[in-house]
Amino acid sequence: MAPASKQPMSGLRSVKRDFSSSSLASASQGSAASEPDSIPWDPTPPRKLSGLEQRLKDIQDALNAQISSSETTLSQSQKRPSPSSQAPPAKRRQLPSTWQSKPEHAVQSSKPAYSSQASSSRAFGATRQVNTNETLVVPSASKSSAASKPAAVFLSQEQTHILRLVGAGQSLFYTGSAGAGKSVLLREIIKSLRKRYQKSPDAVAVTASTGIAACNIGGVTIHSFAGIGLGIESAEQLANKIKKNRKATTRWLRTKVLIIDEVSMVDGDLFDKLARIGSIIRKRPEPFGGIQVVVTGDFFQLPPVSKGMNSVKFAFEAEMWPQTIKKTFNLTKVFRQRDPEFVDMLNEMRFGRLSPKSIAKFKSLQREIVYEDGLGATELFPRREDVERSNTVRMSSINGKEQVYTAYDGGSIQDMQQREKMLANFMAPKRLVLKEGSQVMLIKNMDDTLVNGTMGKILGFVDPTAPPDDVGMLGDKPASKGTKDVKSAPAPVGRQLLPLVEFLQPGGSRRRIIVAPENWKVELPNGEVQVSRTQLPLILAWAMSIHKSQGQTLERVKVDLAKVFEKGQAYVALSRATSLDGLQVLNFDPSKVQAHPKVVEWSKTLETVADR
């Protein structure tokens, strides 16, 4: 007898289930007519929320409901909508009176716990320890049941071509002007390679020339990967030093692909040393011992640090560069700026050849810009001291109580000096001080509209353990009737309030989000976490350093070129802006716009992949 004709032994023969595609298609067509109100079934199993996540979700739902009701008529506002138009709200689970949260979600004593890996680390917040393994992303205003998913990444033809070459094992270098999608492509390359070598996670080494750049891509500095310290000795001496370091030697032997970001700050001599070290350690004559090398960056931006009286030596001037890098590409499509006039002005600035028309246009940007929404431009400074001074002055002008958030740091590095140096590279600060009214910037991508660089303002602070009905319309006057103002009901002693931030989005729309802690880490190819930090993904945004702004996209930028002192700084600062309308330039001086002659000449050798 054929298997299809077998009868079930249970005796339940009244229903026969056929899950073939044709059967499902016909069934859906038939039910569409007879059951217009049927609820669509999502095959993806729902993720169970933790206790604190559920509380944050309930608070966010309450805020969204209040925002919705404030925009309707009085009669409509008396009728509270359900979370979903297609299904009734889920029943709230009733917990026994003796129930308590698990330790990782509970409020700790005022003395923070200390990690065995980081004896000097303090718990997040002045009085609360955060579980560093858990990140809590609050749902967006448009989705009340789950956090928004990042938008799909669409690569241009030239980006796709480079991605395919990397997948085919080609060693290459690609560059492009600011906003040409270098970072987006690099993230896709890293994701693709890690998927390819998922059974050998330490086969892909993700590095960068600086700690900040390394943190931005989830990697380590090239010095840390190579195990060379400052790298001032000869290649042979450094190789002997590495041979005595079992972990460093293992990294060199197991690596199949080496990624180097922000190569503009890698000295040519260092590039030659690394190529030679790879040959010695791996006992193969090819540069880097035969490792596939993928390099990216923009040599028109910040250059390597010159040594004494010696002139700058770029990586492309290294003896081993042409033997290592088989292909060089220039990305030509700009995504950050949409205005063709602005794109042309920045390209002229990049090459250090400004036309009279562009000079006149840049000088006209000295005008004062007033934003009606109360959010000002982010002022970019070349020195960190100026950044701290500017943010401190702005903060002191705001009345109100400070909320202090102290990061929780961890990791395997025991040397305190090295540890602090690595932690300083994180965008997230060790100590974050906020007030109601503070101008802040998001420093981590949350979804397709809440991205790194999004500006916002603190409306108030929320107790994540409070019932949703206790959360008022912070920042609105008057608050919705029947709700309390959170500021008038502070959290019990020992609990940490979380900021409620109103973010400005493209097109002028706004989103209110309760911002919870996120995690950053510096991870070696073998998975060892050297340092990590758990902190709110926010920084004060009245001012920012040019160095830390590299790679950022900002809609409102203010730059005083009188304070710029290094080649490439003016270009980096001005190219952060998305449009001329949101850019203010003080003391524009064409002499500050310089490009290194070596870079200009070398750039003529780059290949392009034209979009069709």
Automatic annotation (TrEMBL):
Its EC number is 5.6.2.3. Its cofactor is Mg(2+). GO terms for biological process: DNA recombination; DNA repair; telomere maintenance. One of its GO terms (cellular component) is nucleolus. Transmembrane segments: none annotated. Its main location: nucleus. Pfam families: PIF1 (PF05970), Pif1_2B_dom (PF21530). It catalyses: ATP + H2O = ADP + phosphate + H(+). Residues 1-127 are annotated as: Disordered. Keywords: ATP-binding, DNA damage, DNA recombination, DNA repair, DNA-binding, Helicase, Hydrolase, Isomerase, Mitochondrion, Nucleotide-binding, Nucleus. DNA-dependent ATPase and 5'-3' DNA helicase required for the maintenance of both mitochondrial and nuclear genome stability. Belongs to the helicase family. PIF1 subfamily. This is ATP-dependent DNA helicase PIF1. It comes from Pycnoporus cinnabarinus (Cinnabar-red polypore).
